[in-house]
Amino acid sequence: MDSDKFLKIAAAVALLLAGGSVFYYYALYLPGIEQERAARASEEKDAAARQELARQNQYETCKANARSVYEAD
User: Which parts pass through the membrane (predicted)?
Assistant: First the structure.
């Protein structure tokens, strides 16, 4: 009789632990991973935009230099 009660308590504790770990994964861990992924994507997008702007500025500078050399001759 005592072992039956112990098994019931042990099974209940095991289920609570399993449920707690599933809760932790879905409620706490996974949203943090998604936020990191979104932040990384945003940083990569900003870096690409800055790189494109720098490339465009370099192109405009090159055109201005070429125009000034052409007009000087």
Answer: 6-27
